[in-house]
Request: fold
Amino acid sequence: MPSHPLRAATMVSVLALLLLAVASTGTQAQTRDVKLSGMGIRKCSEWLQWKESRNTEARAMVLEWAQGFISGHNVYARAGTEMASPVIANASVLIPLLDSYCQKKPEDRILSGVVEITQSLGGAKVNLAPKTLPPPHNPRPESKGKVDS
Reply:
């Protein structure tokens, strides 16, 4: 565990807020890559393995990450145009919901499960699908029959 749990939780909340801000923007916004870190990028199969092996520390870290993500959602949802309810999810709510999600989709990331749980509890819709970029534009189209020397 980090030596400053409050500081780590604050950083997780800020990361979650930034993720939601970028992921939830409309098509008017410029496409940007979102880099994720933390327990949310782990696979659901790991969440289930930690349950089997009684690794309570790893599961507690996921729950802290998830609660930070949900807190970021609540802050962002208040500032957005979409009407979304604030989501309250303590460990007794999150654990069975994440267990159920991960049993159905063990290859998904924990992030996907937390987003689905947040939405099922009345939260804002978040699109996690990667945006496809158009092919790069060639600034110098090749001319037929013309050869550079």
